[in-house]
Amino acid sequence: MAREKLILVIEDDAHIAELLEIHLKDHGFELSWAQDGLAGLQKFREREYDLVILDLMLPKLDGLEVCKRIRADNNYTPILMLTSRSEEFDKVLGLELGADDYITKPFSIRELVARVKAIFRRIEADEEKSNSASQLTELTYGELAIYLEKRKAILAGKPIELTAKEFDLLALFASNPGRAYSRQELLDIVWGYQFDGYDHTVNSHINRLRSKIESDPANLKYIKTVWGVGYSFAEPEDFQ
Can you list the pairs that 119-125 forms with residues at least 24 positions away whose Cβ atoms lie under 8 Å? Predict the structure, then answer.
C-alpha cells in the first residue's frame, strides 16, 4: 500500500495553515507546518517531502529565497507558491526560480486542493511516460505490431492509419499491458493535466482506436473496459 503524500506547508498565517491541514488531510495527505522561511527550510532538509506549499511573504526568509535555496540543493520536490501580491513580476520570478505552480490569495480551498492533485497527477504522468519510453521499441501482440520510435502500427500485415493521440494511447497501453487506467489518468498522460474534466475526449479516442484495431466490437481483443475504473490493454498471455 502506498504511503500518504507528505506536504510541507510554509505559511506564517496560522489560520490559513490550519485550513490547509484540515482539508488536505481529508483528501489523504499528511501535513507538516512551519511558520517562517528559516524554520521551513530547516524542516524541509530534515525529511523527504512530496510537495511544498510555500507562501511568498514570510518572516526571516521570504518564499522566493526559500525556493531558490531548495533548488540550489538540486532538489526537485514540487513547489506550489502562495502569493497575496498581484504583480506579474513575483509570479514569473517564482516560476523562474523553480516553483511548479502558484495560486493567488485569497483562494478557495477547493481550488488549492485541485492544484495539489493536479501537481501529483502531472508527476505520475511524467513517470508513466518515462517508464514507457524505457520499454522495447517494438511491441507485438498477436497480429498487432507497434513500432514506438517509428510511431507506426501494423495489424495483420497492414499499416493502421492513426492520429497522433490515437498512437500515443495505443503505445501507452501496449507498453503497460494489464495496467488499468482511469479516464483522468489517460488525460493527464496523453493530453496533459490542463485537460482536467474532458473525459469525453478519452472516450471518443478510445472508440476510434478500437474501430481500427478490433475486428469484433462484441469481443474486444486488445483494449478492454475495466468497469468502474477505465481501460486496460490485454495481458501478454492472452495472445499465446
Answer: 119/51, 119/78, 119/80, 120/5, 120/50, 120/51, 121/184, 121/185, 121/188, 121/193, 122/188, 122/192, 122/193, 123/78, 124/185, 124/188, 125/185, 125/188, 125/189, 125/192, 125/193
Q: Are strands 230-233 and 180-182 parallel, antiparallel or unpaired?
A: antiparallel
**DSSP-derived 3-state class of residue 31:** strand
φ, ψ for residue 82 (rounded to 5)? -105, 135
What is the predicted pLDDT for the residue at 201? 78
CB 167 within 8 A of CB 139: no
Residue percentage of the chain with pLDDT more than 90:
40
Q: What is the pLDDT of residues 131-179, one digit of tens each?
A: 655 555 888 999 999 998 888 999 999 999 888 888 989 999 998 999 9
Find the DSSP H helices in 98-156: 109-133
Q: Tell me if the domain spanning 135-239 has CATH number 3.30.450.40.
A: no
Query: Which amino acid is residue 98, in one-letter code?
Result: G
Q: What is the mean pLDDT of residues 3-21?
A: 91
Count of residues for the chain?
A: 240
Beta-bridge partner residues of 82: 55, 103
Query: Running DSSP on this structure, what letter comes out for residue 201?
Result: H
Q: Where do the structural domains in the chain lie, given as residue ranges?
A: 6-127, 135-239
CATH of domain 6-127: 3.40.50.2300
